[in-house]
Amino acid sequence: MRKLIMKMSISVDGFVGGAKGEVESWIFKSSDESSRAWGVGLSWEAGVIIMGRKSFEAMAPYWPTATGPFAAPMNQIPKAVFTQKGFKNILPNAEQSPAAASWAEARVFDGDLAEEISKLKSEPGKPIMAIGGAGFMRSLIATGLIDEYHLATHPVVLGEGLQIFNGIARPLDLKLIDVKAFPGGIIARTYSI
Which listed residue, of 37, 57, 142, 146, carries a Cα 20 to 30 Å from 136's Cα? Predict the structure, then answer.
């Protein structure tokens, strides 16, 4: 059975986005070459990248023409999108590039999240990497199926915003398995269940 890994940026005070979900004002300030290399390396370990519908619809138009360090893994690794509200393929003309095709060919899961994740985990292949928004991550955490948490703590206090660990039904006993500190102030912690 392959692992489900959650990768998320988080503020020192535990928020993954500002009050309106904004991340641009803080997430890139502390990024440096070595923290980006860590994130890109972690991405390449994935056999599939999963996210919720909102994140998918925001990312799909951007990544096929992006040129930064994350563009290659984001465009080459297969994607899956999870939705309860239906899904419209927003890249119907994927013939324009292989990168766009990788987004247009994303698998769509619209059933029970825990059942769909269990099926995906039972398939052969490299680990599943979950990225995206707070709502999807909260739902994923609630399934109890995440094997590893990769949390990049940025040196910022937001004071308010979106959380992913609020409202959990029972405590999560995590084991710290790795810590990396980067020159820009990001501290990456890896926890297993």
Answer: 37
